[in-house]
Amino acid sequence: MYGTINWKQEVALLFGKQVAIPRLSAWYGDPGKSYTYSKIKMEPNLWTPILITIKSKIEAIAGTSFNSVLLNLYRDGKDSVAWHSDDESELGENPAIGSVSFGATRRFMLRHKYQKEMKLEIQLTPGSFLLMKGVTQHFWQHQIPKAAKVTEPRINLTFRKVS
Ligand SMILES: O=C(O)CCC(=O)C(=O)O
User: What is the pLDDT of residue 81?
Assistant: First the structure.
Protein backbone atom coordinates (compact mmCIF):
# COMPACT_ATOMS: atom_id res chain seq x y z
CA MET A 1 0.00 0.00 0.00
CA TYR A 2 2.92 2.32 0.87
CA GLY A 3 3.87 2.99 -2.77
CA THR A 4 0.34 3.37 -4.14
CA ILE A 5 -0.76 6.15 -1.78
CA ASN A 6 -0.44 9.85 -2.62
CA TRP A 7 1.31 10.83 0.64
CA LYS A 8 1.61 14.52 1.51
CA GLN A 9 3.67 16.44 4.02
CA GLU A 10 1.04 18.76 5.46
CA VAL A 11 1.97 21.98 7.22
CA ALA A 12 0.02 23.43 10.17
CA LEU A 13 -0.01 26.97 11.53
CA LEU A 14 1.15 26.84 15.16
CA PHE A 15 1.39 30.10 17.13
CA GLY A 16 1.70 31.97 13.82
CA LYS A 17 4.47 29.70 12.51
CA GLN A 18 4.28 27.14 9.68
CA VAL A 19 5.23 23.73 11.11
CA ALA A 20 5.50 20.42 9.22
CA ILE A 21 3.23 17.90 10.96
CA PRO A 22 5.24 14.91 12.28
CA ARG A 23 3.90 12.26 9.85
CA LEU A 24 2.82 11.99 6.21
CA SER A 25 -0.88 11.85 5.44
CA ALA A 26 -3.37 11.29 2.64
CA TRP A 27 -7.12 11.70 2.25
CA TYR A 28 -9.19 9.33 0.10
CA GLY A 29 -12.93 9.29 -0.36
CA ASP A 30 -16.03 9.71 -2.44
CA PRO A 31 -15.90 12.66 -4.89
CA GLY A 32 -16.48 16.01 -3.17
CA LYS A 33 -15.87 14.68 0.37
CA SER A 34 -13.18 17.08 1.57
CA TYR A 35 -11.96 17.22 5.17
CA THR A 36 -10.48 20.03 7.24
CA TYR A 37 -8.50 19.59 10.47
CA SER A 38 -6.05 22.00 12.15
CA LYS A 39 -6.99 24.43 9.33
CA ILE A 40 -5.60 21.93 6.77
CA LYS A 41 -8.12 21.31 3.98
CA MET A 42 -7.72 17.98 2.19
CA GLU A 43 -9.41 17.25 -1.14
CA PRO A 44 -10.13 13.56 -1.73
CA ASN A 45 -8.02 11.26 -3.84
CA LEU A 46 -10.24 8.67 -5.50
CA TRP A 47 -10.50 5.23 -3.87
CA THR A 48 -7.91 2.61 -4.79
CA PRO A 49 -8.91 -1.10 -5.00
CA ILE A 50 -7.04 -2.01 -1.79
CA LEU A 51 -8.71 0.80 0.18
CA ILE A 52 -12.15 -0.28 -1.09
CA THR A 53 -11.41 -3.88 -0.03
CA ILE A 54 -10.39 -2.82 3.50
CA LYS A 55 -13.38 -0.46 3.73
CA SER A 56 -15.84 -3.29 2.84
CA LYS A 57 -14.31 -5.62 5.43
CA ILE A 58 -14.50 -3.16 8.29
CA GLU A 59 -17.97 -1.89 7.33
CA ALA A 60 -19.20 -5.45 7.84
CA ILE A 61 -17.58 -5.62 11.31
CA ALA A 62 -18.57 -2.09 12.36
CA GLY A 63 -22.13 -2.35 11.03
CA THR A 64 -21.88 1.11 9.51
CA SER A 65 -20.74 2.65 6.22
CA PHE A 66 -17.82 5.01 5.62
CA ASN A 67 -17.26 7.43 2.70
CA SER A 68 -13.66 8.51 3.31
CA VAL A 69 -10.39 7.60 4.98
CA LEU A 70 -7.50 9.56 6.49
CA LEU A 71 -4.22 7.69 6.14
CA ASN A 72 -1.25 8.48 8.36
CA LEU A 73 2.27 7.24 7.72
CA TYR A 74 4.50 7.27 10.82
CA ARG A 75 7.92 6.85 9.25
CA ASP A 76 9.46 5.77 12.56
CA GLY A 77 9.07 6.47 16.29
CA LYS A 78 9.86 10.16 15.83
CA ASP A 79 6.52 10.60 14.05
CA SER A 80 3.42 11.02 16.19
CA VAL A 81 0.00 12.59 16.52
CA ALA A 82 -0.74 14.93 19.43
CA TRP A 83 -3.74 14.80 21.80
CA HIS A 84 -6.98 15.57 19.98
CA SER A 85 -10.57 14.47 19.48
CA ASP A 86 -12.02 13.72 16.07
CA ASP A 87 -14.71 16.36 16.50
CA GLU A 88 -14.73 18.33 13.25
CA SER A 89 -18.25 19.45 12.29
CA GLU A 90 -18.31 17.48 9.02
CA LEU A 91 -18.06 14.22 11.03
CA GLY A 92 -21.44 14.87 12.65
CA GLU A 93 -22.55 14.67 16.29
CA ASN A 94 -21.49 11.10 17.24
CA PRO A 95 -19.09 9.83 14.58
CA ALA A 96 -18.02 6.24 14.07
CA ILE A 97 -14.28 6.16 13.31
CA GLY A 98 -12.86 2.83 12.12
CA SER A 99 -9.09 2.56 12.62
CA VAL A 100 -6.93 -0.09 10.90
CA SER A 101 -3.19 -0.41 11.58
CA PHE A 102 -0.28 -1.96 9.65
CA GLY A 103 3.45 -2.12 10.30
CA ALA A 104 5.07 -1.19 13.60
CA THR A 105 3.05 -1.60 16.80
CA ARG A 106 2.46 1.79 18.43
CA ARG A 107 0.81 2.94 21.67
CA PHE A 108 -2.66 4.44 21.23
CA MET A 109 -3.45 6.50 24.32
CA LEU A 110 -6.84 7.80 25.44
CA ARG A 111 -7.52 10.33 28.19
CA HIS A 112 -10.83 11.66 29.49
CA LYS A 113 -11.29 15.39 28.83
CA TYR A 114 -12.84 16.18 32.21
CA GLN A 115 -11.77 13.38 34.57
CA LYS A 116 -8.03 13.49 34.03
CA GLU A 117 -7.37 10.33 36.07
CA MET A 118 -9.29 8.27 33.49
CA LYS A 119 -6.72 6.99 30.98
CA LEU A 120 -6.42 4.00 28.70
CA GLU A 121 -3.63 2.62 26.55
CA ILE A 122 -3.94 0.12 23.70
CA GLN A 123 -1.12 -1.42 21.67
CA LEU A 124 -2.22 -1.12 18.06
CA THR A 125 -0.67 -4.20 16.47
CA PRO A 126 -0.47 -4.81 12.69
CA GLY A 127 -3.86 -5.92 11.31
CA SER A 128 -5.75 -4.59 14.34
CA PHE A 129 -9.10 -2.83 14.03
CA LEU A 130 -10.27 -0.23 16.56
CA LEU A 131 -13.74 1.32 16.44
CA MET A 132 -14.53 4.60 18.22
CA LYS A 133 -18.21 5.54 18.23
CA GLY A 134 -21.12 7.07 20.15
CA VAL A 135 -20.12 9.94 22.42
CA THR A 136 -16.41 8.97 22.55
CA GLN A 137 -15.22 12.14 20.80
CA HIS A 138 -17.17 14.38 23.22
CA PHE A 139 -15.40 13.03 26.29
CA TRP A 140 -12.07 11.53 25.18
CA GLN A 141 -8.91 12.66 23.44
CA HIS A 142 -6.40 10.32 21.83
CA GLN A 143 -2.77 10.45 20.73
CA ILE A 144 0.06 8.35 19.30
CA PRO A 145 3.11 9.49 21.30
CA LYS A 146 6.65 9.46 19.98
CA ALA A 147 8.44 6.15 20.65
CA ALA A 148 12.24 6.35 20.80
CA LYS A 149 12.74 2.60 20.24
CA VAL A 150 10.53 2.26 17.15
CA THR A 151 12.54 2.27 13.91
CA GLU A 152 9.95 0.70 11.59
CA PRO A 153 7.15 2.56 9.78
CA ARG A 154 3.47 2.25 10.64
CA ILE A 155 0.46 3.03 8.47
CA ASN A 156 -2.87 3.83 10.09
CA LEU A 157 -6.17 4.24 8.25
CA THR A 158 -9.08 5.98 9.97
CA PHE A 159 -12.30 5.45 8.03
CA ARG A 160 -14.89 8.17 8.50
CA LYS A 161 -18.24 9.37 7.21
CA VAL A 162 -18.14 13.07 6.36
CA SER A 163 -21.08 15.21 5.27
O1 LIG B 1 -2.61 6.58 14.09
C2 LIG B 1 -3.55 6.40 14.83
O3 LIG B 1 -3.80 5.31 15.32
C4 LIG B 1 -4.43 7.57 15.21
C5 LIG B 1 -4.66 8.54 14.10
C6 LIG B 1 -5.51 9.67 14.55
O7 LIG B 1 -5.57 9.99 15.71
C8 LIG B 1 -6.30 10.41 13.61
O9 LIG B 1 -6.17 10.20 12.40
O10 LIG B 1 -7.12 11.24 14.05
Answer: 97
